[in-house]
Amino acid sequence: MTRLELQNKENGEILLLDVSAAPGKTTREPVKIVYDGEVATASATDKQTVSSDGDSAGRQSSAEANAESRRPAKLNAPLPVVLTRYAAQNMYGPLRTVEPVPGVSQVSLNLPPRITTLMPSESVSVTPMAAWSLQGSSVIALQVRNRSAVKVILDPRSLQGQFTTATFQHRWLGRAGTPEDTTVLYLVTTGRPESAFIAEQRLPESEGKESKRSNRGAHK
């Protein structure tokens, strides 16, 4: 028997399924998972409705619950706190411990593989890892790794960019090569994740070509 761990992309809810297989020659159809019979639905107002097949009153209650679910969910903390907490749970904890957040969704990252404009005064590498969106705001999780031989104290006030909040998972980084040389930074911004960062500088085309010619000459 194998336990599968599935996650609802709409609210982060975790579903656990125990699956077993038996030897046989019959080709099985693809697995389809549906909710059948009575279904309990919790709305944003914490009211619970139960519907069942053939029950018109239940269907009406379900429709009302669906209408409620389209409204912005009532959060138990300020939006930046909810987003940061959700991202941290996804990055550092097992999926089964992630607290469901109605309406949250993972978003794609249209960012370079390295961000150099965020912490220009420190000898660190910054790598985008994942992002989530909720109610018009986004949280971006970035890996921060020390590339120097000295300890780095992390201060959100030294960051360069446009964002609402910035939270480091740890307060400092150990020197490069130690277990403590890496942490995660969570940035909350309005709109898309890309809006949090200063645009990366690009070399003029002529300089880029000259650099390539120089590199080719160096390897001869």
From TrEMBL:
Classification via Pfam families: DUF3438
Superkingdom of the source species: Bacteria
Start-end of Basic and acidic residues biased regions: 202-213
Biased amino acid composition, Polar residues: 42-64
Matching InterPro entries: Integr_conj_element_PFL4704
Start and end residues of each stretch annotated as Disordered: 42-72, 197-220
Protein's name according to its UniProt entry: Integrating conjugative element protein, PFL_4704 family
Organism this protein belongs to: Citrobacter koseri
